[in-house]
Amino acid sequence: MASIVIIEDDARVRTALARALTDLGHSVAQAETAMAGLHLVVSQQPEVVVLDLGLPDVDGVDLLKMLRPVSSAVVIVATARVAEEEIVRTLDAGADDYVCKPFSPEQLDARIRASLRRFQTSSGGVVDIVVGELRINSRTRIVSLDGGPLELSRKEFDVLHFLAAHEGVVVSKRELLAEVWRQPFFTTDKTVDVHISWLRRKLGETADQPRYLHSVRGVGVKLMAPGVITATKPEL
User: Fold this and answer.
1) 109-164 residue pLDDT tens
2) With helix as H, strand as E and coil as C, how does 143-156 read?
3) The pTM is what?
4) CA 104 from chain center: how many Å?
5) Residues 17, 50: contact at Cβ < 8 Å?
6) 104: three-class secondary structure by DSSP
7) Could you tell me the sign of the dihedral formed by the alpha carbons of 194, 199, 205, 207, in that order?
8) Do 211 and 204 contact (CB within 8 A), yes or no?
9) Sign of CA pseudo-dihedral 182, 188, 192, 195
10) How far is CA 180 from the centre of its chain?
């Protein structure tokens, strides 16, 4: 099973969750504050972090931003915050999944296993995807552009990897939400827009002057090598 760090300030919830996940076969460590959790993640490098947002010292979203540069762990946010804008903000900050309280340990366990399967699937199979001067290593999750390294967040990598694996195919925002975020039913596509915008900047392009990412009006976006003729208009 997985090595897990739970960062949750409610002792009753934290203890019960740790006990249940341990009974399900996981190795579990606990922290009640953001800074204690950050220290645990850095020192133990777990496979999964279960993160509450309402922490006493640092907001969970701010902690999430601290975790991303120092850990490749799957981060599952488990919180009482249910507003859609909060969910979008948290996923944009780098969360891999979002579970609203109350939830059962079995539900969380299923989310953990699903998230790890997605990561393992993306890390196996074809190692390199090459599109023009863009090279993506699926196993190491290392990306290079024009021979130099490209620094991407976990979700930026996942979006780019999915688009590159479907080179030349128009992918809708809903498909990206379903396949990358596993959240196909958001009523807003802002989270996709934000990540596409970040990727454009790192790829050295803009919506008006696309290099790799070409938008198709009212449909979605496709990744193509520079110089390939396309009739698409930038919109995403």
Assistant:
1) 988 887 777 665 554 444 578 898 999 987 778 899 998 999 998 889 999 999 99
2) EEECCEEECCCHHH
3) 0.61
4) 23
5) yes
6) coil
7) negative
8) yes
9) negative
10) 7
